[in-house]
Write a structure and sequence with these properties.
With 263 residues, this protein is an alpha/beta fold. The protein contains 8 helices and 7 strands.
Length: 263
C-alpha cells in the first residue's frame, strides 16, 4: 500500500477492545492490513491466538488481556501498550455485551454488567488513552455505538442506555479534546453477524436450532434497504475511515453503518 494513501496507517498504533472476536477482530485485521501496529485487548484469552495469527501473517500485533470495567487493569494495559509500541494513535472502544430484557425484568446485576462493560469501559479506556494522544499531538478515538443508540429497540433497555450514552459521550469528548488534535466519533452498526447477535437470537427465543438461527439472521436484514445483515468487515471499513487521514475533518459524528436500517 502506498504511503501517500490516505487510508495508510503505517507508523501508527491502534488499540481495539473486544478484539478476540466479531467486529473487534475484523477491525484489528483490517487496520493491521493497512499498516497499523495493533494492540488487541479482550478479557477472553482467545485474543492471544488471534494476535499470533496476525503475527504469522507478518503484521505487528500483540494481545493484552484486560477487564475494561476495572480501572487498575485499564491503566496497566495502556501503559503496557505504550511500552510495547511507543504510544497510541487510534483507539476503537468496541467491547460490549447485551442482556435482552425489559427494565421490569432486568436484575441490578445484569444492568450493571451491560453498562460497566460498554459505557464504563469506554470511559476508562478513553480516560487513560487521551493523555497519551495529547503527548503525541493528537489521535482518533472511535466509539462503538449502535443503531439502537440512535433510536430505541425492544427487549434491550440496558443496551439502548449504553449505546445512547456512548453516542452523546462521543460528542462531549469531541468538544473537549478537539483542541488537542483528538478526533472522536462513533460508528453505529445495525445487526451484524457476530456471536453476540446469534446469542441475542437465543436470548429472545427467535433462534432455537441451526435452521431457526438462519431464519433469524435473514429476518434481521430483510427490512433494510440493502436487504442483508452486516458482516464484521463492513463495520471495520467504517472504523478504518474514521481512524485514518481520510476523515481528517470529521469529529463528533455518529456514523450509521446499518444497510440503511435507520433510514
Amino acid at each position: 500500500m502506498a504511503k501517500e494513501d490516505l487510508l495508510y496507517l503505517g507508523g501508527k498504533t491502534a488499540v481495539v477492545t473486544g478484539a478476540a472476536s466479531g467486529i473487534g477482530l475484523g477491525t484489528a485485521e483490517l487496520l493491521s492490513r493497512h499498516g497499523a501496529k495493533v494492540a488487541m485487548v479482550d478479557i477472553s484469552p482467545q485474543g492471544e491466538q488471534e494476535a499470533a495469527r496476525l503475527q504469522g501473517m507478518g503484521r505487528e500485533a500483540a494481545f493484552f488481556q484486560c477487564d475494561v470495567r476495572v480501572e487498575e487493569q485499564v491503566a496497566r494495559t495502556v501503559s503496557a501498550i505504550c511500552d510495547r509500541f511507543g504510544g497510541i494513535d487510534v483507539l476503537f472502544n468496541n467491547a460490549g455485551v447485551t442482556v435482552r430484557k425489559t427494565v421490569k425484568d432486568l436484575t441490578e446485576q445484569e444492568w450493571d454488567f451491560v453498562l460497566d462493560v460498554g459505557l464504563k469501559g469506554t470511559f476508562l479506556f478513553s480516560k487513560h488513552t487521551i493523555p497519551v494522544m495529547e503527548a503525541r499531538g493528537g489521535g482518533s478515538i472511535i466509539n462503538a455505538g449502535s443503531g439502537w443508540g440512535l433510536k430505541g429497540g425492544n427487549l434491550a433497555a440496558a443496551y439502548c442506555a449504553v449505546k445512547g450514552g456512548i453516542v452523546n459521550l462521543t460528542r462531549a469528548m469531541a468538544i473537549d479534546h478537539g483542541p488537542a488534535g483528538i478526533r472522536v466519533n462513533s460508528v453505529n452498526p445495525g445487526d451484524t453477524d457476530t456471536a453476540m447477535l446469534r446469542d441475542e437470537g437465543v436470548q429472545t427465543g427467535a433462534a432455537l436450532d441451526a435452521a431457526t438461527m438462519e431464519t433469524y439472521l435473514a429476518d434481521c436484514g430483510a427490512d433494510r434497504p440493502l436487504a442483508r445483515i452486516g458482516m464484521p468487515e463492513d463495520i471495520a471499513k467504517a472504523v478504518l475511515f474514521l481512524a485514518s487521514d481520510m476523515s481528517s475533518w470529521v469529529t463528533g459524528a455518529a456514523l450509521s453503518v446499518d444497510g440503511g436500517g435507520n433510514a
